[in-house]
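Journal club side-thread
Mid-discussion, someone asked how the predicted structure for our own chain would compare to the paper's figures. Pasting it here so we can look after the session.
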Amino acid sequence: MSRTSGRTMDRDVTLDCDVVVVGSGAGGAVIAATLAEAGQRVILLEEGPVLDAMAHGRMRPSESLRSIWRDAGMTLAVGIGDSPSINVTSARVLGGSSMVTGGVCFRADAEVLDGWSRELTIDDLDANAMDRWYSEVERDVHVEPVPVSLRSRSTNLFIEGGEKIGIPFHSMNRNTNGCTGNGRCNFGCPNGAKMSVDLNYLPRAERAGAELWTDCLVERVITEGTRATGVRGRFVDEKKERTQFHFSVFAKRVVLAGGAAYTPLILRASGLAKRSGALGRNLSLHPSFRVMAEFDEPVRGWHGALQSAYSDHFHADGMVFNSVFTPHGVVAAAMPGFGKHHARFRERIANIAMFGGMLHDDGGGRLWRFFGREPLMTYRMSKRDRARVPLLLRRMAEIFFSAGARRVFLPVFGSEPIEPDDLAGAPLESTHGRLFECSSQHPLGTCRMGSDPRASVVRPTGELWDVKNVYVADGSILPTSLGKNPQLTIMAMAKRVANRLVN
């Protein structure tokens, strides 16, 4: 294997290759493996450190957060107007955010892909054309349905409540192999069963000759006239934060795969992609809300797969219900109140069930250059999305009450749990957006793809409009939100871009 840590460097370094790939997550790993296997000399640069999958699986959630989650999982998209502020989570590690996902792998709906193809006049972006790339990725990362036997009691209770009122549920697909239902996919699998890219695409890239460099912060793209010739940056040390030594990688082509929050920063710092004004805009997040419920009998929702079932029954309303139950220590910390008041709820943790609801949002986010390395993210919900939030929460509460819940904990800061008779009178419609607790793992769209240089950042091939030899292959190029977990679509799009680069 060819891996080098920038932390070990005691001098400036200059390298050259055919293709330099920036970022090692779902997009970057796919690109690096595909191009290396096609015989191209590939150097992949990752800002974060290396963390072995099994070592990650032995960590406590708090250790995982400190070690590889960006900002220890506390990154925030600041709500504007009557919008919630949204906790946006991602990872800074070799393998990127695939290391901290729940492993869910959905194809984008045909109506979304066909809409992109039709509205953007891109012939090979519809569902039929994308089937090839989806199928390859599904094979490569071992996508399989979650067995019903791995559903937790928490998930089954929500399903029972939903089915009583006519809402069907389905098994999720995840990239797993040998899952036993430890319920902590976001914080490392103890069995190494989650097939994140550090266990498939990155080893493939190495076997094909790619060089993997970690602890390397790329700061800008090097250009000569209208052509890119490489990237520059500095080595970083997680203890010192930065070192005095720098690197330059000269390449025939540059592929940026730093994610929807960081690829735009590199482009902006390089003075690129300014033509359309779309860079850093159109940020969609799939705002997600966690609803908990207390039952009389023990639930122990941590026994089972972290995510195993979903319902798109309200797809037409832009809503999807996704099962989730994080490790019980994380759930306990999210219980309301302080001191003894909090302790009373925390002591009932074994009786708590949980489910998630997600919006297919219109995308009202924006990235701003801020002090230091991290961007400032802001998010303004569209009127349509804002009106959906109370409806989503009411529907989820109704399902839990249908399942026999004693009371429900709505994600409203400072609120007390409600009982069945309280739901109709709960003032959700008049609650200010900043009081809703909201999260996201799916930032998309900040370097959107299109066929019109006046409204997009990259061409249908993934190449920038205003400079040659710079390609983007991460969630930032997706033209709209998906309404479903985007990991598989990001990988399929990266396959599509890689195929253009190979040919």
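Post-session note: The mean pLDDT is 95.
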